[in-house]
Amino acid sequence: MTFTLKQVETFRTVYETESVTAAARRLDVSPATVSATLAALEASIELRLFERVRQRMQRTPEATLLYEEIRRLNVGLESLGRKIRAIRGAAQPRLRVGCIHAYSGAIISDTIARFRTRYPDTGLYLQIRDSNTLRDMVVSGELDLAAVADESELEGLRGHRLASLRAVAVFPKGHPLARLEQVEFSHLADADVIALNAEDGSRKRLDALLAQAGQSLKVAIETPYSSTVCQLALAGHGVGIANPATAVGMAAAGLSYRPLAAPVHFECHMILHGSRPLSEAGKFWATCLRGALAPLVDSFGV
């Protein structure tokens, strides 16, 4: 005894409509095809499923028993389908991600919005930390993947660069530097500079370029986060050197920015554990983050 899914679907539709013509319309086939498929099923399973009474298909008791069994199977298949979608959407109960503070505003919000278009039901566990802490969390398995700066040690991890962004000078709206297309070191000679801490990768590149040029800046304030640099610059405490990802997000608050002429840049790397496989949701998160960074790369990429 053999039968096909097409035959089963045809039987189910005729059973529900009690009409070959109505079943044909629902299945988008001809009535002759419905009749032939149904006859083939009855011959295969050796059961009479319908009595042809005038224009109606009268169900037999055997047809009712078969229909109830098919309905139970359909419920099971629907449940299986939901489980498959859950596995495809999230190979784990939630996706555990992290990123540094510079991307914790508009960039991470845009990333989440993009991610939700494909995985609306996948929970997110989001950590905003410094690069070294995020690295340790990925190594320990607390996070699946994280976006970090380049000062983090990547040994034992897999990683790839998402963006390399040109540093910007930041200052309040109306500042004289706003008249420039880009800011040279000489333009900052008399300014109180707000800079990132000395161990930051971009700060190291800044100091190396200054030493190479035989120049120096008056660093009045040091802080670990570009967001703090921008807030202090906006408040008038000096001219900051910051990640454009943070500066662009604060433009509406009155912060102005111009790119540095010197090749000082901020790196963004995606890291994940060296041996643990990444779910499809995790891979898509990385794609979404890259997409959210794309406008910055277009404007400030190096």
Number of strands: 12
Q: Over the alpha carbons, how many angstroms does the gyration radius reach?
A: 32 Å
> Number of folding domains?
3
Structural class: alpha/beta
Helix content: 40-55%
Mean pLDDT value? 88
Poorly predicted tracts of residues: none
The quaternary state of the protein chains shown equals single chain
CATH class of the largest domain: Alpha Beta
Strand composition percent: 15-25%
Described by the principal axes of the CA atoms, the overall outline is elongated
What can be said about the biggest beta sheet?
5 strands, mixed
> Would you list the SSEs in sequence order as H and E?
HHHEEHEHEHEEEEHEHEHEEH
Q: Which fold name is given in CATH as the topology of the largest domain?
A: D-Maltodextrin-Binding Protein, domain 2
- Spatial order of the strands forming the largest sheet: 4-3-5-12-6
CATH superfamily of the largest domain: Periplasmic binding protein-like II
Number of helices: 10
**At CATH's second level, what is the architecture of the largest domain?**
3-Layer(aba) Sandwich
Termini separation: 68 Å
Features:
10 helices; five-stranded mixed sheet; alpha/beta; D-Maltodextrin-Binding Protein, domain 2; Arc Repressor Mutant, subunit A
Q: Can you put this structure into words, describing what you see?
A:
This protein is α/β, with parallel strands linked by helices and 302 residues long. It folds into three domains: 5-84, Arc Repressor Mutant, subunit A, CATH 1.10.10; 95-162 and 267-300, 3-Layer(aba) Sandwich (D-Maltodextrin-Binding Protein, domain 2); 168-263, Periplasmic binding protein-like II (D-Maltodextrin-Binding Protein, domain 2, 3-Layer(aba) Sandwich). It is built from ten helices and twelve strands. It has helices at 5-17, 20-27, 31-45, 61-89, 106-116, 131-140, 201-213, 226-234, 244-249, 280-300, and strands at residues 50-53, 56-59, 94-99, 123-128, 145-148, 157-166, 168-172, 193-196, 219-223, 239-242, 255-259, 265-273. Strands 4-3-5-12-6 form a five-stranded mixed sheet, sandwiched between helices. It has a five-stranded mixed sheet with strand order 9-8-10-7-11. A two-stranded antiparallel ribbon has the order 1-2. β3, α5 and β4 form a beta-alpha-beta unit.
